[in-house]
From TrEMBL:
Annotated keywords: Aminotransferase, Transferase
Gene Ontology molecular function, alphabetical: transaminase activity
Positions of the Aminomethyltransferase C-terminal domain: 152-230
Protein name per UniProt: Glycine cleavage system T protein
GO cellular component: a single term: cytosol
SUPFAM superfamilies: Aminomethyltransferase beta-barrel domain, Folate-binding domain
One Pfam family per UniProt: GCV_T_C
Domain GCVT N-terminal: 5-131
InterPro entries, per database record: GcvT/YgfZ/DmdA, GcvT/YgfZ_C, GcvT_C, GCVT_N, TrmE/GcvT-like
PANTHER family hit by this protein: AMINOMETHYLTRANSFERASE, AMINOMETHYLTRANSFERASE, MITOCHONDRIAL
Amino acid sequence: RSFAVELFDVSASTCMMAVQGPQALERLAGALDPEFVRSLRPRACAETEWEGTLLFASRTGYTGEDGLELVTRAEAGPRLWRALLDAGVTPCGLGARDTLRLEASLLLYGNDMDETVNPFEVGLAWVVTLDDGADFIGREALLRAHGSEPQRVLVCLKAEEKGVMRTGCPILRSGREVGKVTSGGHSPTLGVSIGMGFVPPQMMAQGTEFTVDIRGRPLAAKVVPRPFYKRPRAKQEREA
């Protein structure tokens, strides 16, 4: 059966804002309809009318924190921005967002994964279903990857001393380079440098010690559980 589909790129005519953090829902209730905000359960999405324009909201995000992602028409963006500021929301940039997603061990495309990486190397096997008989583009490649031992796996590294690992820093074991940091930085929450990187699977065990080469300066680090930080869940989220 065939379907006629017409696609439209509306990127230029829309805007998106993400309100994230421990007080995100409380602040959002001051800018939007409080009942609508409370009705959205984790990972749910819905549309509502806000000041005469359509607003799409999803209780999702890329920070590891609770909150909503909001999409509306571009011309309504400045009004929504001011309403959020008036409700006590503090603006932040991509640097803060990247720090939060790293603390939550959320992968960044182009750093931790790309077209050369398969889901089984980065802990995303749970999003792949291969045993239901459904056909899709890439299925055969995933079957081959699933049936073979990975040559590398992504691990979480936590520094044991002062210093900040960055993307691209070599990961050494017994003086030999065995991988590279794919995402790295300082964690304000943990007070140390953290990072993710690929290493051989036989070196993925928690507690395995490495040296990260920071422009010729060695930084001691070890494998720790994923994620680095997990925020406390509200009762509503635990029951979802």
